């Protein structure tokens, strides 16, 4: 029995190397299958053709694929960089202001100073509507500070090329804003030139032979409101003399509500230069409730007239000219105040191109304005108010006179058109 077992064991020995050899070859075949061969040849001579799996191709087949199929596959590939948007395609880029960035504070500090605005020729505009009006009129932007990219994308892209765009936190804009509710965007512009500006066609179409001269207006809110009324009435031009508040001061811009870009404005003028900006045969009218009081003082007696309550304070400023007009040889005093006729504001005074002078509430109109009115055949325009009531606000007086002038011009035009139709 032992011999039999021994014989069987001996008989089994030759099989072990064969089994091991088969195992090694099997592993080789598995590796070969992983290489995706076209054909598999077993040691027994059996040949098995392996079908490629669904969606797969042999490497050689992929290499010899037609160029058309390769072109069809290209659009399916995801590009490394996403396609730029329309705003980005225009070449516009912006910077981000990091904490401690002093660009905003330094610019705001300087641009809010009138000497800097006059020296560097730059102004500050705030709010999307005001900035859009400025761009539409042809104002040249230099720098924009904004808190959200959408605010910049709302503006015309062709106007933003070459402009420095800086994204800042809304809190930073809020600290420098003059608005009760900041809109998140501020712009630094070159100081507009009225000659190069493009004003709205509707404004030019309704322009009237009516000008406004601002004389020593100091209040920013009043000046902004007056400019708004001038644009609404259809004034052809607004002239500002030296002594007025800067027309590009932020408070004036806010009160003007875009009027700066609807009507030509020339500021910082000497009185000697005013006639150069007036049309031929223009008559200058002065809005001054002191007219009747001054005439009464010069001609009748020392008793105040019924209108003395209107202009006691404002009339006193003219006394400084009284000493200058004294004849040094005879000691006699000459008429120092130009003799201007006074008429009610609602009587006809627009038969020729007219210019209306509005003075400040504190200092009133200047002597130069009265002299210019006298030299052009103008008059004083009186707006009567109830006794005991102080003189009208400058902005209110300007609005009344400008829209009254507009009414008179419209009535005259209607009469002329009727006369032409009869002929």
Automatic annotation (TrEMBL):
Coiled-coil zones: none
Bias-annotated ranges (Low complexity): 67-77
CDD domains: SpoU-like_RNMTL1
Domain RNA 2-O ribose methyltransferase substrate binding, chain residue ranges per copy: 124-195
The UniProt record lists the keyword Methyltransferase: yes
GO cellular component labels: cytoplasm
A Pfam family it matches: MRM3-like_sub_bind
Gene Ontology biological-process annotations: methylation; rRNA processing
Highest taxon above the source species: Eukaryota
Keyword field: Methyltransferase, rRNA processing, Transferase
Family matches, as InterPro entries: Alpha/beta_knot_MTases (IPR029028), MRM3-like_sub_bind (IPR053888), Ribosomal_eL30-like_sf (IPR029064), rRNA_Methyltransferase (IPR051259), SpoU_MeTrfase (IPR001537), SpoU_subst-bd (IPR013123), tRNA_m1G_MTases_N (IPR029026)
Single GO MF descriptor: RNA binding
Family membership: Belongs to the class IV-like SAM-binding methyltransferase superfamily. RNA methyltransferase TrmH family.
Name this protein carries in UniProt: rRNA methyltransferase 3, mitochondrial
Name of encoding gene: MRM3
């Amino acid at each position: 029995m032992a011999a039999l077992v021994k014989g069987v064991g001996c008989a089994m020995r030759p099989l072990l190397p064969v089994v091991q050899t088969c195992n090694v070859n099997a592993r080789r075949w598995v590796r070969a299958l992983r290489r995706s061969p076209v054909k598999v040849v077993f040691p027994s001579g059996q040949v098995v053709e392996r079908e490629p799996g669904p969606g797969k191709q042999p490497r050689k087949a992929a290499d010899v694929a037609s160029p058309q199929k390769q072109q069809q596959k290209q659009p399916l590939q995801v590009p490394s960089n996403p396609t730029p948007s329309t705003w980005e395609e225009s070449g516009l880029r912006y910077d981000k202001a990091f904490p401690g960035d002093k660009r905003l504070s330094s610019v705001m500090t300087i641009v809010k100073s009138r000497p800097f605005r006059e020296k560097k020729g730059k102004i500050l505009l705030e709010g999307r509507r005001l900035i859009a009006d400025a761009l539409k009129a042809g104002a040249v932007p230099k720098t924009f500070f904004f808190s959200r990219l959408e605010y910049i994308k709302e503006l015309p892209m062709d106007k933003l090329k070459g402009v420095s765009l800086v994204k800042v936190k809304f809190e930073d804009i809020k600290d420098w804003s003059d608005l009760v509710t900041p809109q998140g965007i501020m712009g630094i512009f070159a100081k507009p030139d009225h000659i190069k500006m493009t004003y709205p066609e509707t404004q030019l179409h309704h322009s009237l032979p009516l000008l406004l001269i601002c004389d020593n207006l100091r209040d920013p809110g009043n000046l902004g409101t007056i400019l708004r009324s001038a644009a609404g009435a259809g004034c052809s031009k607004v002239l500002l003399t030296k002594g007025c508040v800067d027309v590009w001061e932020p408070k004036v811009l806010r009160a003007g509500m875009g009027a700066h870009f609807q009507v030509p404005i020339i500021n910082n003028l000497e009185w000697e230069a005013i006639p150069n900006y007036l049309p031929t045969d223009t008559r200058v009218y002065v809005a001054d409730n002191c007219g009747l009081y001054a005439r009464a003082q010069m001609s009748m007696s020392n008793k105040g007239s019924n209108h003395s309550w209107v202009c006691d304070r404002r009339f006193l400023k003219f006394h400084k000219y009284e000493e200058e007009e004294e004849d040094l040889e005879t000691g006699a005093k000459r008429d120092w105040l130009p003799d201007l006729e006074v008429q009610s504001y609602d009587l006809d005074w627009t038969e020729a191109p007219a210019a209306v002078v509005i003075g400040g509430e504190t200092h009133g109109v200047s002597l130069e304005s009265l002299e210019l009115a006298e030299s052009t055949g103008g008059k004083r325009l009186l707006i009567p108010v109830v006794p005991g009531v102080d003189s009208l606000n400058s902005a209110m007086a300007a609005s009344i006179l400008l829209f009254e002038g507009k009414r008179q011009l419209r009535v005259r035009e209607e009469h002329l058109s009727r006369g032409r139709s009869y002929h």
